[in-house]
Amino acid sequence: MIRLEHTEHRKGNTKxxxxxxxxxxxxxxxxxxxxxxxxxTAVNNYLKCxxxxxxxxxxxxxxxxxxxxIRGIAVHSAAEKFYKNKMNKYPEMDYSDLRNIVLGLFKTExxxxxxxxxxxxxxxxxxxxxxxxxxxxxxxxxxxxxxxKGFEKPTPIxxxxxxxxxxxxxxxxxxxxxxRNDSREIPDYIEDFKTSKSMEITxxxxxQLGICSILYEEIYKRKPVLGINFLKFRKGKKIVEISxxxxxxxxxxxxxxxxxxxxxxxxxxxxTCGWCKKNFDxxxxxxxxx
Length: 290
Known about the structure:
By secondary structure, this protein is an alpha+beta fold. The protein has a domain at 157-258: Lambda Exonuclease, Chain A (Alpha-Beta Complex). 53% of the residues lie in helices and 11% in strands.
C-alpha cells in the first residue's frame, strides 16, 4: 500500500510538472505570436536596422533628442497650428502681419523645446543657425500656401491618424485636402511636410507615401494624389506617383515584417547600422542588449 502511494505520488508530481511545462510553453508561444502595430517609421526602421526596431518598438526606448528631430517637430507643430488657429480664413490680412503670426507660431513651439535644446551638445551659434533656418522653412510654408490659393480652399484636415486593422498599420497624415463634393474627377490630396536638406524622393519616403495611400484607399475608398513639401526650399512641393504594383509589394512586405517581429528575443534583431547605442537611451538596459 505504501509503495503504491509513493508510485501514485510520483505520477502526480510528473503530471503536474508536465502541465506546468505545457502552460509555460503556451505562454511563450503566445508571447512570440504577439503582433505589433506598424507605422511608416517602424517599417523603415526595421528595414534599415532590425535592432533599432527592437529598441524602439519592443523595449520602448526613447530616441535621444537631436537638433534635426527637435526642429522637425517644432516646424510640423507650427504648420498644424496655422490651420487649427484658422489663419487660412483671413485673406484680407496683410502679408507682413500674416508672416509675423507664422513666425510667432514657430517661436512658441521652439521655446517649448528649450529644455531639450539645452541638453544638446551645440553652442549658441549653432542653435541660432537652426532657428533661423527653420524660420525660413515657415516662410516657405506660408508662401506656398498663398501661391496655391490656400485662402480659397476649404480648411484641410491636419495631423490625421489612419488605422488599418487588416494590416495592423497606422500613419499620421500631415495634411489632407479632401474633395468634399465627393466628385471622383477631383481627387483628394495628401501632403507630408519634410524639413530635410535634400529634395530627393528616397525609398523610405516612397514607402511612407505608399503606406499612406494604402490606408487612405482602405478607409475612404478613393485613390489620393500624394505630395511632399520640402520646406527648406522655395517651391519645394513634389507630386509622387505610387503604382498599384508597388502598393501590392508593400502590402506583402508589411506582412513579412509582421511575421519577423513577433519575437521578443534581441538576438532575432541584429544591428545593421552600427549606431543604435548612440541613438537610443540604453542606460536602463542590461549590457547584453547593446
